Amino acid sequence: MTIPLRREAAPLRAQAVAVLRQQIVSGAYRPGERLVEKRLEQDLGVSRTVIREALRQLESQQLITLKPNVGPIVTVLTAENATHLYQVRAALEGTAARLAAEHATAEDVSSLRALIERFRVAGESGEPERLVTTKDEFYAALVAAAGNPVIEEMLGNVQARISLLRAYTLEVPGRATQSHAELSAVIDAIEARHPDLAESRTREHVRAAQAIALTHFAEAPPAAGAAPHTTTPPEATA
């Protein structure tokens, strides 16, 4: 099944970037996987020029790497890369939680609780893609409650790159349940108007995720091979 882009609203390049980015973030394209331009042209129903422009933009976001004699592949993070990203993530999310504890409305808190409940259900029903989507929505709601658009912009880039590891970390048995408990505790602190506690609990949550990611590198580092993508990705909204 192909995913042709609509000839309306956003330019085709922007739509192509959005679709390919979602496939990378969701894990449909795995780290180290080769992205064949001709296949992407067919899947998205656009010209090679559009595909190349989209790949260049994704390269600038460090989601794609151009490998000599191979071509574009989904970026493979190293343990050092991951450590640096998690350090920045802890600072940004911790600050967002602190600000949310100071500024969140009752509606913001209700939204966060509804999302974390959806996350719990997705975890219990074994829906990894829904887990990722719901967690992204949770972070978006957290940043919205913080009321700082700069954090939103910066965290979006960091989260996108960290998402390259989510296909591995969410497969760890019990991680979804643990994550639900950690984030529920963050919401409790936000609702109780305890900025210090909200920030510290958020940083603890990020450190737990970092520990799992680094364990993955130690036990089974992702292959940096160049196998081409041979299955058509599921339909996505641009």
Automatic annotation (TrEMBL):
Pfam families: FCD (PF07729), GntR (PF00392). InterPro entries: GntR_C, TF_FadR/GntR_C, Tscrpt_reg_HTH_GntR, WH-like_DNA-bd_sf, WH_DNA-bd_sf. The keyword Transcription regulation applies. Keywords: DNA-binding, Transcription, Transcription regulation. Gene3D superfamilies: GntR ligand-binding domain-like (1.20.120.530), Winged helix-like DNA-binding domain superfamily/Winged helix DNA-binding domain (1.10.10.10). Residues 219-238 are annotated as: Disordered. The keyword Cell membrane does not apply. Residues 10-77 form the HTH gntR-type domain. This is GntR family transcriptional regulator. It comes from Georgenia alba. The lineage of its organism: Bacteria, Bacillati, Actinomycetota, Actinomycetes, Micrococcales.
